[in-house]
What does this fold into?
Amino acid sequence: MADYNLVKGHDIRIAGVPKNSVVEGKAPEFVALKPSEFRGVKPKLMVQEGGHVKIGTPLFHDKTNSQITWPSPGSGEITEIKYGPRRVIEKIVIKLSDEESSESFSSYNPQELNNLSREKILSALLKGSIFPFIRQRPFNKVPDPDIIPRDIFISGWNSSPLAVNLDLALRRRLPQFQAGVDILNKLTDGKVHLSYNENTVSDTLLNVRGARAHTFNGPHPAGNVGIQIHHISPINLNDLVWTVNAQDVVRIGNFFLTGKLDTTLFVTVGGPSVLNPVHIKSRLGSKIEYLLKDNLSEDENRVISGDVLTGTKSSLEDFIEFYHSTISVVPHETSREFLGMLRPGSSSSRYSLTNAFIGSRQKDYSFNTLKNGSERYILPIDTWENVLPMDIIPNALYRAIYANDIEEMEQLGIIECDEEDFALCSFACPSKIDVGGMIRQGLDLMEEEG
It folds into this structure.
């Protein structure tokens, strides 16, 4: 076991932190899958509007790799297939049946899992539409199943604002998590790395076998899997590694033990606009309205699928995204403050990473959607560097991406980067630069150039 104590970063003191208790979510009437959220995927429908599906029925496949399919998160009638510009499939909506049924596949006992070959495991993952729960670094997308990853990484700690406490989400789920780790070990010639916070009390994380354990401590983004990969075993130019969310490791293990897709998803709802921030036992693809029903302030709000740093603007009528387990809600403000930064402030009216205002980080702060200024010239005062716990020079990398200098980008380590790891740089930036967005632009350019 290796221990990592990271210093750089910042834990945002946002109001509305979810309580460490779990409530049973309201049963939604609708669930959905959104093909448009999967990077680099060209979806081709395998179902039609008005058709009936079971839990786990494949809804679409990738035109560039037809063996990769995406599962239905519910059983019922497909009531809507929404198209966007250029006929891009944006959303597949399913009205749930009163009695849901599931597609059934081969199941195994824990002893049998050890005798399965990589080929048989891959075949089962693809046939059961489970493979998209795995992602690849670099580029953070669904990987090519024919390429063997160097290593596989699991983060057992969410350090992002308002995130799910995995000690709660993984409670009493060791058998499924163990089965998931056993399966992942068969998919790589390297190691399965499991990272968690040094203060974890989860028996599931502490007692699992077959994974190389690492403890991490420090402010966000110490819980990001990309940051952990950087410190444990950095990605070189020709390396490919896979990552899996901790809750999806359980899902993979449960699939092999039962032969069915487990749609359980532990979700947090939080933020300054949420009346009762809490953990909810819900399901994949749930309609957000059912997660926030009767739990919002009456002011105008912005609903976000995901955390406040990396999430997607959403609404009550929309659905939680495939890889998200947080719903964040903040007040939507449009009026700028008089005199702005020239006006004296205190802990009640100002938030500062550098404690520039009296008591500015002594209590949780009610953030809103205001940026408090527009984009301006970059100020090279190490603001980005102070919140990025990586041996990467973000300012120089930003300039290389801006200049489309691929060789320079490679030398500065873009292959290790993902926009979620730089989201805090965007939050901290006094110039209001979307640093994470520029990192994604650079990665897309790298991928296009091959």
Observations:
- DSSP finds twelve helices and 19 strands in the chain.
- The chain has three domains: 1-25+101-333, 30-96, 385-449.
- Residues 385-449 form one domain.
